[in-house]
Prior knowledge:
Helices cover 33% and strands 17% of the residues. It has ten helices and seven strands.
Amino acid sequence: MIKQLVYGLATNLPWVQGLRNQSLGGSVSARYCYSVWLRHIVMANLQGLNTQPRIVAELGPGLSLGMGLAALISGSEKYLAFDVVDYSDLSLNLSVFDELVVLFKERAPIPDAAEFSRVKPFLKDYQFPSHIYGDAGLELALAPERLEKIRQALQGNDPEQLIVYKVPWYEANLIEENSVDMIFSQAVLEHVDDLDNTYPSMTAWLKPGAFMSHQIDFKCHGTATTWNGHWRHSNIVWSLIRGKRPYLLNRAPKSTHITLMKKNGLTVLQEDNVEMPSTFKQNKLAKRFREMSDEDLTCSGVFVIAQK
Ligand SMILES: C[S@@+](CC[C@H](N)C(=O)[O-])C[C@H]1O[C@@H](n2cnc3c(N)ncnc32)[C@H](O)[C@@H]1O
């Protein structure tokens, strides 16, 4: 926590603002991206949802566009990515892309908890999902001319706008209403400052019947000595820790997300809580969190699917 506070204060110095001291996720690794994309798709399949989404949007792809590239490689036609920090790195994206192609061609098993112990959701079965990506469909998706088109798009030769990367994004009208088949995010919605406007935007983008799939991590990300100690910091302490970082944590507990989904007319189909005991009760929380339910206080993460 002290380290985070010192960093937060230091971000007021202009030369510190560019330094990276954020949690940046794992999308630098192709195997991570392959694993995360397939986990979202396997979970969608278990809910009977569309596992061949034509248009896919992602919030907060992080260091590479790998999860969206996995979507494109496996058959999606368009990928829209929205972040608040520009991490674009062509050589990383190209190498992640090439590695992903090999993983799909080999029908590699989904990297599991032995390789990525902290990545959720967990699956019951980590075999390659051939029941979703059958040989005939995958052969078409992996056709050399199709893959070359995606590779070219990454390099900026993208007349059909296969890949759209928008940083920063805030306007809801970036995407046509009722046009997206699937929106997903991994370890992002806990960082989004303006949830009140983000959920309505995402909902508007989805086609009727389309869905969103999110893994959200409510832990303190190093800002406290206990996993949920960030809910004990007063607003003043929190703003000092945040400093001028482009994002940190919105500190919204699970119920805020579920309430916003329902308020925006989505149907929550799946809600897998990761429970973790709390070492303190609500009376130790900062004033604004004292009414928190026991469920929120002990929910360290959630995987949620909601349908429009
Ligand atoms: C922990 S990283 C996760 C990155 C990636 N999803 C992964 O799994 O590796 C959080 C990401 O959320 C992004 N982010 C923060 N606030 C955001 C917002 N309001 N809208 C979109 N992305 C945001 C950050 O820039 C960063 O890319």
